[in-house]
Specification:
Layout lengths: L2 E9 L4 H13 L2 E6 L8 E5 L5 E5 L10 E5 L4 E6 L2 E8 L7 H13 L4 E4 L2 E5 L4 H9 L6 E8 L14
Parallel strand pairs: 1-4, 2-6
Antiparallel strand pairs: 1-5, 3-4, 5-6, 7-9, 7-10, 8-9
Amino acid sequence: MTTLAETYLGNQVGDSALQQQVEQARQAGTLLEVYLQPGDRAKGRIHAHSTCGVELGIIKSRDHALKMGDIFVTQSNQLLLIHLHAQTVMVLTFDGDATGHAIDLIYLGHVLGNHHWSVLVQGDRIYVEMMADPAVMETTIRAVNIPGLCIDYEVRSPAAPLQFSSHSHH
């Protein structure tokens, strides 16, 4: 049976009252903890298993992106502490000058979008959310054949993940 958590109490980071509630629940054996993937942060409905194997359903507003230390109350009156795994992202950069490759870059954007791989452009870097097997993603990106395009990876702390915007088809 799935334990449902939809009442958000807040975040324990910097909130001593919530930290105390978490510690009391831990001592009483009523604390559930869950480790989620960075991609789960923005979802409205999340299915997961706690560290002790309890099946969980987390329901929240899509407007609230989960953060490390968020606390929910379950329907069975247990506290649920949210942990986030580190976020690995693909980083695309250029070795040299990208001038003259505008059409190639537009095509790259089309290819990434066609696969529904979220991107974030910051400065001279294109971050791509890991949405498939890295080898498949690399092969797809290399097939665009942009001279000087470099593919690397970066691990982001759960406390400072990149926010990829969601999209929809209307």
